[in-house]
């Protein structure tokens, strides 16, 4: 993944196929956490909410997610902000 995209804490899902989102979000969060990027913004757009629900389903299954929600800015429903647990906190991904 690191060769394919910039890992900067912002993932814009508009560039990807919906079928790829589940794996992409998980891989991106893994890479962010490995690099110490604990605040991540996932841009899924407003639409009918299908991508938002997919993203949140992924987040709900991860034990390394401290919390997530809507950002407090103008993007509100079009993005989800995620707070990851630090690596030394013992949080690991649930299989």
Overall description:
The chain is an alpha+beta fold and 95 residues long. The protein has helices at residues 21-34, 50-60; strands spanning 10-12, 39-43, 65-69, 79-84. It is globular, with a radius of gyration of 12 Å. It has a domain at 20-78. The chain contains two helices and four strands. Helix 1 (21-34) crosses helix 2 (50-60). The longest helix has 14 residues, at 21-34. The model has no long low-confidence stretch (mean pLDDT 88). The relative contact order is 0.21. 26% of the residues lie in helices and 20% in strands. It starts with 9 loop residues before the first strand and ends in an 11-residue tail after the last strand. The chain has a four-stranded mixed β-sheet, with helices on one face.
The tally of beta strands, per DSSP, is: 4
Label the structural class.
alpha+beta
Helix count equals 2
Strand content: 15-25%
What is the share of helical residues? 25-40%
Q: What is the first-to-last residue Cα distance?
A: 20 Å
Strand order in space, largest sheet:
1-2-4-3
Provide the low-confidence segments as ranges.
none
Task: Give the overall pLDDT as a whole number.
Answer: 88
Helix and strand pattern: EHEHEE
What kind of oligomer do you see?
single chain
Q: Biggest sheet, in brief?
A: 4 strands, mixed
Shape: globular
What's the Cα radius of gyration?
12 Å
């Amino acid at each position: 993944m690191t060769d394919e995209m910039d890992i900067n804490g912002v993932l814009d899902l508009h560039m990807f196929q919906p079928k790829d989102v589940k794996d992409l979000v998980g891989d991106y969060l893994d890479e962010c956490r490995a690099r110490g990027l604990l605040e991540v913004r996932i841009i899924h757009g407003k639409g009918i909410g299908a991508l938002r629900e997919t993203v949140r389903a992924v987040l709900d299954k991860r034990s390394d997610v401290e919390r997530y929600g809507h950002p407090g800015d103008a993007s509100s429903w079009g993005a989800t902000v995620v707070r990851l647990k630090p690596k030394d906190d013992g949080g690991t991904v649930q299989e």
